Amino acid sequence: MTSREISELTGKEHKHVRRDIEKMLTDLREDGSKFGRIYQDAYGREQNEYALPQNLASSGLWTPFDIGHSLESETVGGNGSRMLRPFAKSYLSR
């Protein structure tokens, strides 16, 4: 699961999710560079994100409460879209 997916599921800003991941990786004594990657945003700029394996993605501060809360709420990601709900349920049930 990527940091951008976590951001969309929780409604948190991506920069805050990245900060939380960096703290979590430091606390776990994991090398963050193993999970970092570059993507291009809508303006063609290179941006950083993290691609976490499921065991790390489910150990972050945003899970299970934030994602579970988003799945139960009327909207997901705070933008009125319910499109992420099926994705999140299938991902979390793996």
Oligomer: single chain
Low-confidence stretches: 67-94
Q: What percent of residues adopt helix (DSSP H or I)?
A: 40-55%
Strand line-up across the major sheet: 1-2
Kindly give the count of domains: 1
Q: Measured on Cα atoms, how large is the radius of gyration?
A: 13 Å
Fraction of residues in β-strands? 5-15%
Q: Quickly give the structural class.
A: mainly alpha
- What is the tally of helical segments? 5
Shape designation:
globular
Q: What distance lies between the first and last C-alpha atoms, to the nearest angstrom?
A: 12 Å
How many β strands by DSSP? 2
List SSEs in N-to-C order.
HHEEHHH
Mean pLDDT: 74
The biggest beta sheet is recorded as:
2 strands, antiparallel
Protein name: Rha family transcriptional regulator
InterPro entries: Phage_regulatory_Rha
Overview of the molecule:
It is a single chain. With 94 residues, the chain is mostly helical. It has one domain. The protein is 46% helix and 11% strand. It contains five helices and two strands; from the N terminus they run H-H-E-E-H-H-H. The protein has a two-stranded antiparallel sheet with strand order 1-2. The protein is globular. InterPro entries: Phage_regulatory_Rha (IPR014054). It comes from Brytella acorum. This is Rha family transcriptional regulator.
